[in-house]
Write a structure and sequence with these properties.
CATH class: Alpha Beta
CATH superfamily: NAD(P)-binding Rossmann-like Domain
Number of strands: 9
Structural class: alpha/beta
Number of domains: 1
CATH topology: Rossmann fold
Distance between the termini: 30 Å
Largest sheet: 7 strands, parallel
Order of helices and strands: EHEHEHEHEHEEHEHE
Radius of gyration: 17 Å
Length: 241
């Protein structure tokens, strides 16, 4: 991790999901202390990950789109595994949708903004002040290829817009905190090879998708001191798609 990270923790939001848990395992295996942040309803999964990964892992329940919830989560994280020196903002999701002209009521749009933009905004606001004060830190946000190829989001325009906005937010924040020794980057995966995606798209070819281990490796690299000269980047991780 960045200089100073040895005494702190790495926060993984969306930690109860497939990518979050894969990244947590990789980080703990590399000798890092990790705070896996999941939704309040993810308690059983968080406890199972704690049991698997041991004292280096703290499972924390929080609504990461809510600033008040972040305050309590940060206090727990610092007490259990140390102040955040890095973070992977994986929390987000896709709630379906349809052509924009055919959608009614705006429910899909509001859901995507909350899941993908509000979570990024609240997480950055919660985590960056401490990193700036400590003059060290690295944050990686998980975006999507549709952030830079919005035409691929046809039929899910709200999702594409929310991911594009989240990546823009991260890149603007990166410029703000770089003078303070803090880096912010984004990764832009295509379809990730998860069990859920295989069930949802049984006719697709998952060998063209991005394996969990591959994406976790890119995120871990961006969190590390080896990537100390990279900030404000949006890294494509497209697999063979």
């Amino acid at each position: 991790m960045d200089q100073g990270a040895r005494g702190g923790s790495i926060v993984v939001t969306g930690g109860a999901g497939a990518l979050g848990s894969a990244l947590a395992r990789k980080l703990v295996a590399g000798g890092h202390r990790v705070a896996i942040v999941g939704r309040p309803g993810d308690g059983a999964t968080l406890r199972a990950l704690e049991a698997e990964l041991g004292a280096a892992c703290a499972g924390v329940g929080a609504d990461v789109a809510n600033e008040t919830s972040w305050g309590a989560a940060l206090a727990e994280i610092e007490a259990r595994v140390g102040p955040p020196a890095g973070a992977a903002l994986i929390a987000g999701g896709w709630s379906g949708g349809g052509p924009l002209h055919a959608e009614g009521g705006g429910a899909a749009y509001r859901a995507m903004i909350e899941k993908n933009l509000d979570t990024a905004h609240a997480s950055l606001q919660a985590l960056l002040p401490g990193m700036v004060a400590r003059k060290a830190g690295s944050v990686v946000l998980v975006g999507s290829r549709v952030a830079v190829r919005p035409e691929l989001g046809a039929g899910a325009a709200a999702y594409a817009a929310s991911k594009a906005a989240a990546v823009a937010l991260a890149q603007a924040a990166a410029a703000e905190v770089l003078p303070h020794g803090v880096r912010v980057n984004a990764v832009l995966p295509s379809t990730i090879d998860t069990e859920a995606n295989r069930r949802a798209m049984p006719d697709a070819d998952p060998t063209r998708w991005v394996p969990l281990g591959s994406l976790a490796g890119v995120i871990a690299f961006l969190l590390s001191d080896e990537a100390r000269d990279i900030s404000g980047a949006a890294i494509p991780v497209y697999g063979r798609a």
